Amino acid sequence: MADCVSKVELTVSCTDLLDKDVGSKSDPLCVLLQSAGGDKWTELGRTERVKNTASPSFSQRLRLDYHFETVQNLKLGVYDIDNSSADLSDDDYLGGVELTLGQIVSSKTVTRPLQLKKGKPAGKGTITVTAEEIRDNRAIILELEAKKLDKKDTFGKSDPFLEFFKEGDDGKWKLVHRTEVVKNNLNPTWKSFSVSLQTFCSCDLEKPLKVDCSDYDSDGSHDLIGSFTTKVSEFLKAVEFDCVHPEKLKKKKGYKNSGVVYVKSCKLVADYSFLDFVMGGCQVNFTVGIDFTGSNGDPRSPNSLHYMSPDGLNQYLSALWSVGQVIQDYDSDKLFPAFGFGAKLPPDFQVTHHEFALNFNPANPFCQGIEGIVDAYRRVLPQIRLSGPTNFSPIINHVASIASTAAQANTASQFGLGDEKS
């Protein structure tokens, strides 16, 4: 899930804050906290203090990592600051709000009433939070060729490939890309490739790059043909580079190069991240398919995945809560179609059904939120008989049909996520 991790910047503003100062308005500051589990919260950052205002727009942005696969519970608290101490315990609390980061990025901008505590509003005060991804979403697309490379193999031509290195903070070269090997060719053309600009040059077009051209050997003892140093800004000029072998340069008088590498094409393009789609309005449509085949074991047995423990949970419910709590923030109507498969249904229990509405309403299989799916599952489990065989293709085809219909209707902002629990 590494591609689903981004840096996010939150911008905060408030309106109609409580007035805690005599003879002037409050001097508000906003602090950002993230849940560390239980009742523990960790401070991630705070804004500057804005003097004498009930409706501040904070210029100091709050930064944090965004993880799509995790429910990130956040708390924003606003305080009236009347001293130089960093400790907020002696400052007046003007109200706060609890949100998930998923709610913020999926809406881009969220406005909520401030509360002094749960159920107690902080007057008419509101807080507005806007999310923006901190990421250069460009990628470099590069196509290179070479001419007159040195012959390195005794019984054939060289098998050249290129390796690209960027200079690290420690001054060492770090590999960022390797091309394919072009067999038996002294005038190769390598396939066009794309690498994120962050990876390729840390988004710095002037960052030093080193390119090695080597002759491939299957035992890993590749022979260097030659190297050159450059930067992305030079690649963009579509120039050519002398491929120089350092030892030959030292020893051979009049040595010029061991071949020339040419830039056939180089361009920078937008490389959209997952968060770009979410913040662009993409909805994640969550569909649940629950396995009721006999392979799960008798629901009355503690060894069954469907067995309800004394606290009213089982492995299916745990999976539903874990996945559903993440997904639900990205679906605006919170209506999730839920199906079962592999069971015999009342009243006759004669036929195994490989797709049935979990709420027994085929005309409207939607459940309201994860709680609705859980309630439907709890109700249906005692009424059915586990059967078989395992055949979940009807549910997958159903979800594919929904996605196809959305695509044909030009609603590409709908992203279907089929989730089969087994």
Automatic annotation (TrEMBL):
Matching entries from InterPro entries are given as: C2_dom, C2_domain_sf, C2B_Copine, Copine, Copine_C, vWFA_dom_sf
The family this protein is said to belong to: Belongs to the copine family.
Q: What is this protein called?
A: Copine-3
The residues the entry assigns to the signal sequence are none
Instruction: Keywords in alphabetical order, please.
Output: Calcium, Cell junction, Cell membrane, Cytoplasm, Membrane, Metal-binding, Nucleus, Phosphoprotein, Repeat
Main localization is other
Q: Where in the cell is it found?
A: Cell junction, Focal adhesion; Cell membrane; Cytoplasm; Nucleus
* Entries under SUPFAM superfamilies matching the protein: C2 domain (Calcium/lipid-binding domain, CaLB), vWA-like
Domain C2, chain residue ranges per copy: 1-114, 123-245
> Which GO-annotated molecular functions does the record name?
calcium-dependent phospholipid binding; metal ion binding
Main function: Calcium-dependent phospholipid-binding protein that plays a role in ERBB2-mediated tumor cell migration in response to growth factor heregulin stimulation.
**Which superkingdom is the protein from?**
Eukaryota
The annotated subunit structure for this chain is:
Monomer. Interacts with ERBB2 (preferentially with the tyrosine phosphorylated form); this interaction occurs at the cell membrane and is increased in a growth factor heregulin-dependent manner. Interacts with SHC1; this interaction may mediate the binding of CPNE3 with ERBB2. Interacts with RACK1.
**Alphabetical list of CDD domains matching this protein:** C2A_Copine (cd04048), C2B_Copine (cd04047)
Source organism (scientific name):
Nothobranchius furzeri (Turquoise killifish)
Q: Which GO terms describe its cellular component?
A: cytoplasm; focal adhesion; nucleus; plasma membrane
